[in-house]
Amino acid sequence: YPSGNLAIIVTGQRDQLICTIQEDEPRTAKIRALFQSDGRSTCYYPNGDEWINMSIQGGQYLDQAGSRVRRWAWPNMSREPHVPLSPIFISLNRHVGVRILAQDKIIVSFLAMGRQAKFNMGIKVKVSATSQLHAPAWLGKDELLLLAFRVRILQLFNRMRGCINFPSSEQWNKMQPPAYLVTQAAKILERCVATDISEELCSSITAIVKQ
């Protein structure tokens, strides 16, 4: 950002890349969006609530109350007639915007000091004509585990920032996670109850988000 704060960070994890978009804040910068090279992405409202969630099968758009405004499936990802995507544009802040046009055209644009940079976060998925992918139940086991591990990673990032900001004190280890992470963890646990998964898996997800 013009302020000098990091806006977009790209990191490698095993065999995939993760693009993280942060808010323009000097310390404990909130995560505004995560894009993964395996097709999973999430954009967040300023308060940390989910705004847009996408997977290799499709995506959904939520309002600030958590209600689904729109849901779509990518073409060729199911034998059922897919719900087409109407182009979506959201502004994460005055410098960063996200435009979703297709599975392989998810554009993150960064504008500052009269100059613009664009990054395509979309992916191309090849599906054979004889063997199409079946879309799993919405928020099934994989989706819930992904959300739980994402919250856990953000919790660890928060603790790392505390350690950096207070290197000579043990107070950082006693810091509570930000309110938006507490809210996300609670929502995941609510979805576990509402989803038909085993008690063992539900216990595992609970342990992940409450560590």
TrEMBL record:
Pfam family, one: FAM194
Superkingdom field: Eukaryota
Domain FAM194 C-terminal: 1-174
InterPro entries in alphabetical order: FAM194_C
Protein name: ERIP6 protein
Gene from which the chain derives: Erich6
